[in-house]
Specification:
Elements (H helix, E strand, L loop, with lengths): L2 H19 L10 E3 L2 E3 L9 H20 L2 H5 L2 E9 L5 E2 L1 H13 L4 E16 L2 E14 L5 E14 L5 E13 L1
Parallel strand pairs: 3-8
Antiparallel strand pairs: 1-2, 3-4, 5-6, 6-7, 7-8
């Protein structure tokens, strides 16, 4: 799927979710063609317990990979066409770009050693092969140079994509740090 079609589909999914949360029962007539296949994301089948179980598995892998501080483990969480938006940096487009940035961070002498990480999902909406969630996160790490523990709190918006094998991976992630002390 091209990036343009992927963003178009994502836009349609976001419109559907916004309409549903606003109580609008009308279904948009917008269809996105993906490889000759027309889909209407608003008419996607309801999420199943297996979807939620698969997404929870991704959440557990996220915690484990984050605490490992290993780029190779973190790379397993991302869809090939993923986009990561972080405060103070450019958009990282594609799993390879995210992996490259994580590898640089992993090799950095000034990086911190993760001590804790917890993501608190406040809302999860599943529409077909896409899921959108938002919530808060807390994390702490030890600064290598000073030994000081730094605590973070922030918010995040994450879009997940079902993979051909049925597993879920992060497709779009935006994280904003609210406090650092």
């Amino acid at each position: 799927m091209s990036r343009r079609i992927g963003f178009s589909l994502l836009g349609n999914v976001m419109v559907c979710l916004a309409m549903a949360s606003a109580g609008d029962s009308t279904v948009p007539r917008t269809f996105v063609s993906t490889g000759g296949k027309n889909i209407n994301p608003c008419s996607a089948q309801a999420s199943s317990q297996s979807d939620r179980t698969g997404i929870e598995r991704l959440h557990q892998q996220d915690v484990q990979a984050t605490l490992s501080a290993k780029a190779d483990e973190l790379a397993k969480l991302w869809d090939t066409e993923a986009v990561r938006l972080q405060e103070g940096g450019p958009a990282e487009v594609g799993r390879a770009a995210i992996y490259s940035d994580d590898k640089r961070w992993e090799a950095s002498a000034t990086r911190g050693q993760p001590l804790s990480y917890n993501a608190e999902v406040k809302d999860l909406q599943i529409v077909g092969d896409w899921a959108i969630e938002w919530g808060y996160f807390t994390a702490s790490y030890k600064e290598v140079a000073t030994g000081k523990t730094v605590n973070l709190r922030g918010k995040q918006l994450r879009v997940l994509k079902r993979q051909p094998d049925g597993s879920w991976k992060f497709a779009r992630v935006m994280s904003l740090i609210d406090s650092r002390n």
